[in-house]
Amino acid sequence: AADKIRLIPQDFFAEICEQIIQHLNHKIPGVNTAELCQRIQTSGVEINIGDLAKIANILSFLFSTAARNNLSTEELVTTLGSAGSTLPKHALQVIRHVWNEQGKAIAASEDARNMATVGQFVDMKWKLGVAMSSDTCRSLKYPYVTVTLTVADPSGQLTDKSFEMTIPQFKNFSRQFKEMASVLETV
Which PROSITE patterns does the record associate with it (predicted)? Predict the structure, then answer.
């Protein structure tokens, strides 16, 4: 991971760190690694989304562990330096700056010791479609609903999950959401 971090320009690395801190402070639902990866690639750096997601996971783990252990900026940087870390100098400087500026907010939050271990629902999109034909059947005229869920995993990386349902399945899905809404209104 340190080799991939070396490739990332300091300003982009700082942006990733900032977004992770904001995510851990529950200010944003997650880190859009796909958009960041595209911007980094546009700047001329060759990195793939998988590597960027790994870096985001490592940084999220680093910051949440530092918050759980209530580390000061110097303790965090010293620990990173003494752990045989091969992090580039610019990355250590960014981590020092971001933790010094915003780390205490995570450490002070009452959730710091119980960081979420499940994903967070961010958005849902759906569309109605009709399958007109296929290579094995000339006339389907089969309606379906495609649902795309955007979920932020515990590290903050946003992912889309898509699935299709028949109309009866979608009606059942919708009915269950209505039941959840009515239960939530009583809370």
Answer: COMM
- Predicted structure pTM score: 0.61
Cβ contact 80:95 at 8 Å: yes
Q: Residues, the chain, total? A: 187
CA dihedral defined by 99, 158, 30, 83, rounded to 10 degrees?
-20
pLDDT, tens digit (0-9, with 9 covering 90-100), for 12-46:
999 999 988 888 888 888 888 888 899 999 999 88
Q: In this predicted model, what pLDDT tens digit does every residue of 143-187 receive, in sequence order?
A: 889 999 888 876 667 888 899 998 899 999 889 988 888 888 887
Task: Give the separation between CA 118 and CA 151, rounded to whole angstroms.
Answer: 10
The answer to whether the CB of 113 falls within 8 A of the CB of 140 is no
pLDDT at position 112 is 44
Report the C-alpha gap between 23 and 137 in whole angstroms: 48
Count of domains observed in the chain: 2
Residues with Cβ within 8 Å of 30's Cβ and at least 6 positions away in sequence, in order, are 23, 120, 122, 152, 153, 156, 157, 158
Whether residue 102 sits in one domain with residue 30: yes
Answer yes or no: do 5 and 68 share one domain. Answer: yes
Q: What is the residue type of 120?
A: Q
Q: How many CA atoms lie within 13 A of 49 on its CB side?
A: 11
